[in-house]
TrEMBL record:
Name assigned to this protein: DUF6362 domain-containing protein
Pfam families: DUF6362 (PF19889)
Record organism: Pseudovibrio ascidiaceicola
Domain DUF6362 residue range list: 20-120
InterPro entries: DUF6362 (IPR045942)
Length: 128
């Protein structure tokens, strides 16, 4: 099956969305300071059940597999700035912050993003 550029961009957007939905508990990352004691509740308003609960849709195993495959496609792009452009677009950033981040004009950044997607498409279709 031959992948189109639209399917590649959609898969990268799905990968960014899935990565955002993965659970990240508050103390799951290494910390430089702090302690292991639980947080003390000082007020009755901070007690359990006072705030509204937030329902988080945890991605399925299939979503995680597709995310990993989409992220793996970025290695076909040789230029790190082009990978950054693609990933920031997949995360939903507008062109202005992307251009500031990579130091390019909008037209150049867009051209390089299109070229990077075409590079990914050629590499994937060549492997199949």
């Amino acid at each position: 099956m031959v992948l189109t550029t639209t399917q590649i961009v959609d898969r990268l957007e799905l990968a960014a969305s899935t990565l955002r939905r993965l659970p990240n508990p508050p103390r799951s990352t290494p910390r430089r300071d702090g302690n292991t004691w639980p947080q003390v509740i000082h007020d009755v308003h901070e007690a359990y059940g006072y705030n509204k609960t937030q329902i988080r849709a945890v991605p399925s195993a299939k979503d995680i597999q597709l995310m990993e495959e989409g992220i793996d496609w970025l290695r076909y792009v040789p230029e790190p700035d082009d990978r950054k452009i693609l990933w920031m677009r997949a995360e939903g950033f507008c062109w202005r912050p992307i251009c500031i981040q990579v130091g390019l004009t909008r037209s150049t950044a867009h051209r390089r993003a299109v070229a990077a997607v075409l590079t990914i498409q050629r590499a994937i279709n060549k492997r199949r």
